[in-house]
Amino acid sequence: MASPAGNSSVSGTGSDGDLMDERKRKRMESNRESARRSRLRKQKHLDDLTAKAAELRNQNAQMLRTVGLATESYIRTEAENSVLRARVAELTQSLNYLNGVLSAVSNNQHHYGGACTFESEEFHMGFSEGFPGGGMWNSNGNGGGGSQQFPIMATAEMIDY
């Protein structure tokens, strides 16, 4: 009951089986190659990410150093500014004082006819007595006693900068 067509069908199935086996083998080989390429891409991506992470760590460390240097510079500058502000306050106070002295001298010039003088008991009591007749410090020429007028003598070195 086996017919030659049935035999050819079986033999055809065998050749179809070989063909299917070949296709299956090629598909498996293709899948392996695809999986290998996928693994390589994945490994390359991982290597790229690792390199990028190292680069970013280096940049971060550099930025931290830069921020540290900037912070130190800021602190130094702020300290210098504080010193300068204090110095400005001192100089402003000195300027105000000197303006007051200048105003007093100006008022005194009007009072004593233009001479730049001041009155001092200190000179009267001690220093002027060392000069005969009061010397140049005694403008009234009486050698002592009473209020005396003395010239103001100052140099730039006398003012503390």
Please characterize this protein's 3D structure.
With 161 residues, the protein is mainly α. It is 70% helix and 4% strand. The chain has helices spanning 4-111, 121-125; strands at residues 117-119, 149-151. The protein has a two-stranded antiparallel ribbon. The protein is rod-shaped, with a radius of gyration of 53 Å. Residues 1-12 and 122-146 have low confidence and may be disordered.
Low-confidence stretches: 1-12, 122-146
**First-last Cα distance:** 131 Å
Helical percent range? over 70%
Based on Cα principal axes, name the global outline: rod-shaped
SSE order, as H and E? Answer: HEHE
Radius of gyration: 53 Å
Task: Tell me briefly what this model is.
The chain is mainly alpha-helical and 161 residues long.
Which SSEs are present, and which pair or pack?
Elements: H1 4-111, E1 117-119, H2 121-125, E2 149-151
Tags for this entry?
2 helices, 161 residues
